[in-house]
Write a structure and sequence with these properties.
Length: 277
């Protein structure tokens, strides 16, 4: 959640005063050793910027790139062209990506692998929160081989932050992103993770999997602190959801950085979810 999915857990001012929403606590959320920005080509950085994502602290992760602390852009994402002109910048509203889950109504299965019991409980709690909205898109917990699989990684702090989790966006074909990674390092959630806090992080990462951007993507300082950063115009990746507010929305479940507590859907989040699903 910047990991504000950046989800900041509140150790540092930018990420630290709050928890990176989507994924990090006090560090940039990547589950791999950070690489210098210079190690990512200028062509890739331009592509990422053109898609409407921040190029600050981009990290190479496998075949993709981790941006904004907890969002994994695949090669497919980087080569896709925008199919929607409805892009808007510089207001604090709800935003989605070009790609959404298709073939509605449908149910997406979710499973976890090799994680402590509390992660399973949190996953089922997050699923229950979504299903309580009676959307055309529902989730179901299964014991294995879910369409979204939640897996663990162990990575300590780096550069003053620690990654809480990460995920990606739906495919062009309309399938939900298939994996959520959660940090099992003790410095991420402590020796005895709070189930409600885990639930809120998973709820946020599931939001990315079905196509939601950070509510404050254009200025992550809103929830993460630090210097205000506007990512500028984009041609894809930040589409305004009608009916959501044009003023600061401090309680959104998709804010880039978390406050370290149990953040769930507010009224505007529910409007956005019902509009799309």
């Amino acid at each position: 959640m910047k990991t504000r999915l950046l989800f900041k857990t509140g150790i540092i001012a930018a990420f630290g005063a709050t928890v990176l929403l989507a994924c990090t606590k006090n560090n940039n959320n990547a589950n791999v050793t950070p690489v210098a920005k210079s190690d990512v080509s200028e062509a890739v950085l331009k592509n990422i910027k053109d898609l409407g994502f921040s190029t600050d602290q981009v990290r190479k992760v496998g075949d993709g790139y981790l941006v904004e602390g907890d969002i994994l852009l695949t090669q497919e994402n980087l080569t896709e062209a925008s199919t929607s002109p409805n892009v808007r910048i510089a207001e604090t509203e709800q935003y989605r990506t070009t790609n959404l889950v298709k073939n509605l109504p449908r149910t997406i299965t979710i499973s976890i692998s090799n994680l402590p019991t509390v992660y399973g409980t949190a996953t089922q709690n997050a699923i229950a929160r979504y299903n309580a909205l009676n959307l055309s898109l529902k989730f179901q917990f299964v014991s294995s081989r879910g369409q979204i699989q939640i897996v663990g990684f162990n990575q300590g702090p780096s550069g003053g932050y620690i990654t809480l989790g990460s995920s990606g966006f739906p495919t062009k074909r309309g399938e939900a992103y298939s994996q959520i990674q959660m940090n099992t390092n003790e410095q991420a959630y402590g020796a005895n993770p709070d189930v409600n806090y885990l639930t809120s992080v998973l709820q946020h990462e599931m939001g990315h999997c079905i196509g939601f951007r950070h509510t404050d993507y254009f200025n992550r300082a809103f929830s993460c602190g630090g210097t205000a950063v506007n990512e500028g115009a984009s041609n894809v990746g930040a589409i305004l959801i009608p009916g959501t507010p044009s003023t600061a929305d401090a309680g959104s479940w998709m804010l880039a950085c978390s406050n370290g507590g149990d953040r769930t859907f507010n009224t505007n989040d529910k409007v956005a979810l019902n509009y799309l699903y």
